[in-house]
Amino acid sequence: MFTPFTVNGSSLQLLKVGDRGIVKFCNIPDKNILKKLQSLGLNTGVTITIEQEFPTLMIQVGSILLEIDKELARNIYVRVINN
């Protein structure tokens, strides 16, 4: 009756520890914050890994660990990579 489906994309806010994804786009209205994230390596096409969910969201971008605010994570979208 129901056909199985998979989720190919998500905001960072919905991912769990160990999940990986490729950044597809950032819907961040504050251009200063967007430029700062880009300067830290969080660009379209880069692979990220969720390292920690609580108390703050920590993501691995290359060799850098970034602490991301939950509101900001809501506006960063990735294509989920199957582990």
From TrEMBL:
Start and end of every Ferrous iron transporter FeoA-like domain? 10-80
Kindly state which keywords UniProt assigns to this record, in alphabetical order.
Iron
Task: Note the superkingdom of the native organism.
Answer: Bacteria
Respond yes or no to whether keyword Iron is given for this record. Answer: yes
* One Pfam family cited in the UniProt record for this chain: FeoA
Keyword Iron in annotation:
yes
Protein name per its UniProtKB record: Ferrous iron transport protein A
Instruction: State the taxonomy lineage.
Output: Bacteria, Bacillati, Cyanobacteriota, Cyanophyceae, Nostocales
